Here is the input.
Amino acid sequence: MFTDTHAHLNRLDLAKHGTLQTALQTAKSANVHRIMAIMCDFDEYDDIQSIMHTPIDGMTLGMSVGIHPCQDTLKQVTAERLLDLAKAHHVWAIGETGLDYYWSKDHINEQKSSFATHIHVSQILKKPIVVHTRDARHDTIDLLKAEKAEHGIIHCFTEDYDTAKKALDLGFYVSLSGIVTFKNATELQDVAKKLPLDRILIETDSPYLAPVPKRGKPNEPAFVPYVAEFLANLYAMPLENFAKITNDNFDNLLNQYV
Here is the structure.
């Protein structure tokens, strides 16, 4: 069975399925038994929290609480507000947060301040932090070090091995998405080969970045097995072994401070 550690369930394209419950049942039929729904802005909280109550037999749902670095609401981020939203048991992680200089260089100081606040909340609640980084690898690692962050995920990893090694040395897990399956992702595939198996996670980042052979279509949690299958082949191991490894890794991440 598979865990999708990063999916935007409130943003799924439901044209194919009709309802979110059907989409989740399709994922369950693909042996996806656990999904973490990711929050990116305050106005998503209620919708995602309601999704947590979607009845799918054999499916476990959790969520994160956080503000994406490209959101206009960065200035509204306070530790008190995040703590209030994130204290529920079904909130597994803090984020996604981080730094994104690809889409936005106008508010770098606000991004850094928000990122640091998320880290502090993660430390208070002892819940992992979900980190987004794009065109900001050095500042991301520097801030994680400065704030003594040691419990979380670098999600949708696309950076070089040096960045991966620095994140691993801090105690972070590296999550790979459908991007690793792309034919032009040879550098990322080379990085993936060097990662320790006990620190790898898999995700869809759905509805974005559908893996081969679904590339170009709206992504969904049912497609995370394609990411797992590609990586299992990359590591020359049976798919069921790799699925167990990544499931155990996510268990270890969530239970680090339990």
Summary: The CA atoms of residues 65 and 83 lie 9 Å apart. The longest strand covers residues 91-100. The radius of gyration is 17 Å. The first helix runs from residue 20 to 29.
